[in-house]
Structure formats: structure tokens, C-alpha cells
Amino acid sequence: MRKTILSIVTALAAVASTLVVLTGPAQAHGYISSPPSRQANCAQGRVANCGPIIYEPQSVEGPKGQRNCHGGLSQFAQLSDESKPWPATSVGQNVTFNWVLTARHATSTWEYFIGNTRVAVFNDGGRQPGATVSHNVNLGGFSGRQRLLAVWNIADTPMAFYSCVDLQIGGGGNPNPQPSPTPTVTPRPPSPTPTVTPPPAGGTWRTGTYYATGSTVTYGGATYRCLQAHTSLAGWEPPNVPALWARV
Questions:
Q1: HSE (CB half, 13 Å, CA atoms) of 75?
Q2: What angle do CA 238, 242, 244 make, to 5 degrees?
Q3: What ranges in the chain are assigned the alpha helix state H?
Q4: Nearest-CA neighbor of 166 among 237, 99, 79, 51?
Q5: C-alpha–C-alpha distance, residues 133 and 103, integer Å
Q6: Residue-wise over 164-185: b if at least 16 C-beta within 10 A, else e?
Q7: pLDDT tens-digit profile of 100-110?
Q8: Which 3 state secondary structure label does DSSP give 17?
Q9: Which of 31, 74, 135, 142 lies 20 to 30 Å from 161 when distance is taken between CA atoms?
Q10: How confident is the model at residue 173 (pLDDT cuts 50, 70, 90)?
Q11: For the residues 39-53, what does the mean pLDDT come to?
């Protein structure tokens, strides 16, 4: 009888251990929200045919040491497809990269690469980050269109999260501008005063919806204002993510 009980307990412990291994890594997720990373652009519908990344932009998790945009995950291989029309954000020499973390995990380092050059590294020394993280990176020495790879290295696992951002350093998105014609000076009537349209207000918070900064929603009988543009996901209900929503 004791052997039977011991066998059952051992089997249950093995199952529990397996469940912990399977579910553990999924608790730590994050990606760059601005300047918009490739997964952010996909989730917001700015780039078409991205595959399943549109539902989970925070999940590009792969072994440390990789230098690709999809973390070595075949289901997210679209992120490394250079034939796609990835929008490039015009920036100066100093850029602040903002991460949204759907779960905070003890962190070793944050690394930023352009090509094979590591342009910045930030050492957290195993600390747990906040719900949002910002790094100011100097991109001096680079100009024109560049693909920047950001890597979030987890301290207590062999895994890292990957996020690629397309940039136009120094501004200007047209590499072959046409010469401007000689302008003809023609008097024009004064322009009408522009109408400022406020962010959309009202409506009940829903998953899979893009919310711009400043827009408001209702949830659980309360009103919330969006602090950072994002596409909503299950688990990101306004009361749960104070980095994204503030109660009005």
C-alpha cells in the first residue's frame, strides 16, 4: 500500500514539475512600443500578413545570443522578412526606446545592436524591472535607414526577448528626392483655423483593439485614460496595467 501511495505522489510531483516548466517562461514578456518595433507595427495593423505575432507582440522569446528579429521562432519568422514594407521612424542621434513589459522578470542586461555593432548596453544586475522601461541610446556614427535589434536578457533563464526597430537616423525617408520646382508666389487667403479633434472617448475596453494615447474607455464601471499607445491583449485590463491606463 505504501509503495502504491509513493508511486502516485511521485507521478503527481513529476506532472506538477512539467507544468511549471511549460508555463514558467510565458510569465515574462515584453517588446518595444516606441519608436514602434516591428511587432508593434504588426499588432497595430500598419504592416500586413505578419502571422500570429499580431496577437502576442510581447512573445518573441528565444535563446540568448541570437541576432535576428524573430528570436529563432519559426512562427514569428515574418519579423525577419526584409522584403516587407517596414515603416522607419525618423529620429536624431539620441533615441529613447520604450519597452512595455506584460510581466516583470529579473534582468541581467539590455543590449542594442546595429548590424554587428553593439551600440549600447544597460546592466540591471538581476533586478526586477518596472512595467515600463526606457533607455536613451546614442546612435552617433550611424545615419540613414538602419535596423536596430534590442535584446532583453533574462537573469535566471537562458532566454532573451528580441525586438527590431526600423529607423531613419538623421530624418528624411526619401533617398532619391526630386528637385523642387521654382516656386510661384501667389497670394493666398488666410488658412482657416484648424479643428483639433480630441482622442476618441467612451466605449467599453475590449481585447484586440488599438488605443491611442489619450483615448478613454470604461471598464468595471470606471473610466480610464490611455497613457501609452498599444493594442490591447487579454490580461491587460485597465486596472491591471497602470503603466498603460490611468483611472480618471
A1: 10
A2: 70
A3: 2-23, 38-43
A4: 79
A5: 12
A6: bbbbbbeeeeeeeeeeeeeeee
A7: 998 788 999 99
A8: helix
A9: 142
A10: very low
A11: 95
**Most distant CA atoms of the chain, gap in Å:** 100
Q: Could you give the CA distance from residue 159 to residue 109 in angstroms, rounded to a whole number?
A: 12
Query: Among 109, 163, 117, 154, which residue's Cα sits nearest to residue 138?
Result: 117
Q: Is the CB of residue 35 less than 8 Å from the CB of residue 167?
A: yes
User: Amino acid identity of 39?
Assistant: Q
**Residue positions counted in the chain:** 248
Q: Cell numbers of 91, please? A: 529620429
The three grid cell numbers given for residue 146, joined into one nine-digit string: 538602419
Decide: 230 and 211 in contact? Cβ < 8 Å. Answer: yes
Q: How far apart are CA 245 and CA 44, in angstroms?
A: 18
Pull the grid cell for residue 72.
Answer: 529563432
Q: How many CB atoms lie within 10 A of CB 229?
A: 18
Q: How confident is the model at residue 244 (pLDDT cuts 50, 70, 90)?
A: confident
Q: What percent of the chain has pLDDT over 90?
A: 56
Cell (9 digits) for 16: 506538477
Q: Is residue 38 within 8 Å of residue 48, measured between CB atoms?
A: no
What pLDDT is stored for residue 114 in this prediction?
A: 97
